[in-house]
Amino acid sequence: MSRLIYLDNAATSYPKPKNVIRAVNDCLLKCGNPGRSGHELSLYSARAVYNCREAICSFLNFNHPENVVFTYNTTYALNMAIKGLMDDGGEIVISNLEHNSVLRPVSDLSHSGRDISFKVFDALGCDDEVITNFENTLSPETKMCVVTMCSNVTGKILPYKRIGEICKKRGIKLIFDAAQCAGLIPIDLSAFYFSAVCFAGHKSLCGIMGTGFCVFSPDTEPLPIIQGGNGVESISQFQSGPLPERLESGTVGVPGIIALHEGIKHITSAGLGHIGEKCLYLESRLTSGLLQTENITLYGRCRDKVSTVLFSIGKVPSEKVSAYLSEKSICVRAGLHCAPLAHEALGTTDTGAVRVSISHFNTGEDIDLFLKEIRLMTK
Amino acid sequence: MDTKYLVFSSVTYALRAMTLLKRHGFSSRLEKIKNISALGGCGYVLAVNLGILDAAVSIISDEGIRVIDILDYK
Fold it and tell me: What are chain B's domains?
């Protein structure tokens, strides 16, 4: 078997840093249930969970660790933010680059009998076009916008700060999906308006699968979408209390949270700027190679993006390309990437497309070997 | 009694207060509350030395963290 070339980091990052792996093992040896008991294993765990909230705040330039709510993935975080912040009545605006983790909860709300509807704006163009489309889609009925900061399909970074300014002026709640860019670009939560920002712990933040979190603005009061034990006001049959426990029912994923903390340490140590530069260099090398290859169509090329590339080979179904590459031990993601509106806009719904997503663990040799296999396939 | 117990609404707030105190050079200890009726259920307290009580409460309150109660016994 040839050596593994992993180019599916937008799904989950691989490999995990060694300190992350060690920390998970350590956690299983040392941690009890946090925020429940008074013995040392429980207290150790509670401190570890809190320390991760602090690390996230430091990484994102945010000053409210109690507003960092841990979840099991970005999907859960987005559901929590959307359903926990949306009032009855009104309109939600989303982009056509949204993942099903946004489209489905929003569609669900629009069928909930709560007088909620939703509209979609086109976010494929340049920044000015995106902003024009966005503003033209808003109406006096718009109560919430849910927008990805970075497309999981094309890697395009949306003008999220400008979107924030517009929502702030109009008093519209704004939720961002940051799953695809946290750990690749700097995110300064003090520099733009938001109601909630949702993150994956296991993608470019280098944690493990089953880890996500949502950061709520201090001026929000999200309602819980799941109720249960949270170590607060146990005598009450109703769930209230402060964040984050109000939204963290049941035992949180301590190994994942500790892994996430280690992932952030890894990124900080490697240097976010260095990681971003390396990934974009490799992305540029890949894109140049694909442009020189016959019968390749590249999608969603733009100036502001992360190291994700989407392409197809003629009319070949994307899953065929992915299966061929898998036989060569090259891991990519084909299909619709759980983002049907984006593929509809790109015209790739029938065949899907092949997504290559690069991490700082990849090398130039990885890219060259990938291109070599693509050229063999297109001959 | 040379120890006082600061009661918070959750373990997260207790730990945030503990971190703040540490930054100001004050030590404190996280413990599970034994008097559950004080909180209407389970909860955590920070044990602080009586000598730093006023300063500790001031530091914590200045950051917008509410000290729900101050107990002689946890």
Answer: 3-71 (3.30.70.1530)
- Cβ–Cβ contact B8 with A under 8 A: no
Residue boundaries of the structural domains of chain A: 5-16+271-378, 18-269
Tens digits of residue pLDDT in A34-81: 998 999 999 999 999 999 999 999 999 999 999 999 999 999 999 999
pLDDT of A182-214, one tens digit each? 999 999 999 999 999 999 999 999 999 999 999
Residues of B in contact with A67 (CB under 8 A): none
Cα separation, A217 vs A192, whole angstroms = 11
- Domain boundaries A5-16+271-378, CATH class: alpha beta
Is B20 within 8 Å of chain A by CB?
no
B68 touches chain A (CB under 8 A): no
Beta bridge partners of A197: A176, A215
Q: What is this structure's pTM?
A: 0.96
Indicate yes or no: CB of B15 within 8 angstroms of CB of A232.
no
Looking at the structure, give the CATH architecture of the domain made up of residues A18-269. 3-Layer(aba) Sandwich (3.40)
CA distance B2 to A80: 44
Strands A68-71, A212-216: pairing kind: antiparallel
Q: Do residue B13 and residue A65 have CB atoms under 8 angstroms apart? A: no
